[in-house]
Design brief:
Layout: E1 7-8, H1 31-42, E2 47-51, E3 60-66, E4 69-75, E5 81-85, E6 100-102, E7 106-108, E8 115-117, E9 122-124, E10 145-149, E11 152-156, H2 165-168, H3 173-176, E12 185-186, E13 192-196, H4 200-207, H5 213-216, H6 218-223, E14 228-234, E15 237-243, H7 252-261, E16 274-280, E17 284-288, E18 292-302, E19 305-314, H8 320-349, H9 366-378, H10 393-401
Antiparallel strand pairs: 1-14, 2-11, 3-4, 3-6, 4-5, 7-8, 8-9, 10-11, 12-19, 13-19, 14-15, 15-16, 16-17, 17-18, 18-19
Helix pairs in contact: 4-8, 7-8
The protein binds FE2/S2 (inorganic) cluster and fe (ii) ion.
């Protein structure tokens, strides 16, 4: 496990005694590892599905697909938020298909028309006389574990090694409380931000370090690059703080953004002039800005196919100034995301080249390594230089875990 230390772009404080070589190249294109990750990582760790403001009224729902799993998160008639497998108990169809929507008083399966109450119990099968008697609870939608943390709704498909989300993020409680996250509201738009033919870990590797900001992200460098601090993943969570540069910005959008944000009274120093990021293992980041709050996450679809999913939330009492600032932060984020996507593609294809030998990580990329440590703890097979023989990876991993 990594030690408690701060990593700064301007002040290198990380001692050199850690694994600088990254994951082996085969880990980014191995189908058996992808299957193991589905079981050990994505099924068994908390997933950020949405925010309570995505479920504005009884019957409002959001669907969430992750690997082999699919979930349905909804607000029932009493206002309680519930999560279920989006899996009809008759023959397994999706009960709802859209990314989000509102179902008035019941969920009706599009295959044969079984209907479920908003609390998940079975209301009726189509042509019930053709079945034996069906107990409404026994044959109701299967619940999925759910936790609401500061308004963000997390789900977990299977029990896993993490404690609660609240425990994992507890060390940030006092820092994030002024943001009043639970009171933010969703900005309209799709959940899917981007799609790329890359392994999900390549996206995360690029996102887990700020060493590239100075060269690859002109807007971020202009906003906060000279004072950016990354803290590594510790017990499943990381923190990065981009405190706005002391010197004036050169780019018009950054200059205008800083001028607008300086008029907001609601956050204490230094958060009133910073972008704060919380990383949540294995695949989510929450970005806390003075004007808005965002999240994004990698959704692995295949060994070389990943979606980036996320959403933006604004202040309920958003002023025109805040709205203009949110437009500009979104613009800066959009440019950054495009730049990162290109870096992700290059990172992802590199291990397939005959010229690929190994990589070496800087002290400023300790966030990448601490994330890899979390993966290696769960999947010690990732310490092998060469991929295990075909058909043996899961077994080999279990054996290595027992050592
Ligand atoms: S699969 Fe849903 S009603 Fe048949
Ligand atoms: Fe980046």
């Amino acid at each position: 496990m990594v030690g408690e230390m701060t990593l700064s772009v301007s002040q290198n404080k990380v001692p050199g005694n850690w694994d600088r070589k990254g994951l082996p190249g085969w880990a980014y294109s191995n189908d058996e590892l992808f299957a193991l990750e589905q079981d050990l990582i994505f099924r068994a760790h908390w997933q950020l599905a949405c925010h309570i403001s995505d479920l504005t009224e009884p019957g409002a729902y959001v669907t969430f697909d992750m690997g082999y799993e699919r979930a349905l998160i909804l607000r029932d008639k009493a206002g309680t938020v519930r999560a279920f497998h989006n899996l009809c108990r008759h023959r397994g169809s999706r009960v709802v298909d859209n990314e989000r929507g509102i179902c008035k008083s019941a969920l009706t399966c599009p295959f044969h028309g079984w209907t479920y109450n908003l609390d998940g119990t079975l209301r009726s099968a189509a042509q019930p006389s053709t079945f034996p008697e069906l107990d409404p609870v026994e044959w109701g939608l299967k619940p999925v574990e759910l936790e609401i943390w500061n308004g963000f709704i997390f789900i977990r498909f299977q029990p896993g090694p993490q404690g609660s989300v609240a425990e994992m993020l507890q060390r940030f409680d006092s820092e994030i409380s002024p943001y009043n996250i639970a009171n933010m509201e969703r900005v309209a738009g799709d959940f899917i931000f981007a799609e790329a033919e890359v392994n999900w870990k390549s996206m995360r590797d690029v996102d887990n370090e700020g060493y590239h900001v100075a060269k690859a992200h002109p807007s971020l460098q202009d906003l906060y690059g000279r004072a950016y601090i990354d803290e590594p993943y510790i017990n499943g969570a990381s923190r990065s703080l981009g405190k706005f540069n002391d010197s004036p910005s050169k780019l018009w959008s950054v200059k205008a953004y800083r001028a607008l944000v300086s008029q907001f009274p609601h956050l204490p120093e230094p958060l009133n002039a910073s972008w704060l990021y919380l990383g949540i293992f294995p695949n989510a980041v929450i970005g806390l800005y003075p004007d808005s709050i965002i999240f994004y996450q990698e959704v692995p679809v295949g060994t070389k196919h990943t979606l980036q999913r996320g959403a933006v939330y604004r202040h309920r009492d958003e002023t025109r100034t805040m709205r203009a600032a949110r437009y500009l932060s979104g613009r800066i984020d959009g440019l950054t995301a495009d730049e990162d996507l290109q870096l992700t593609r290059w990172t992802d294809e590199a291990p397939l080249s005959s010229g690929y030998d190994r990589i070496i990580l800087s002290d400023l990329e300790y966030g990448v390594s601490s994330f890899h440590d979390h993966l290696r703890d769960l999947m010690p097979v990732l310490s092998l230089e060469r991929s295990p023989d075909v058909g043996t990876l899961a077994e080999r991993n279990t054996a290595l875990k027992g050592l």
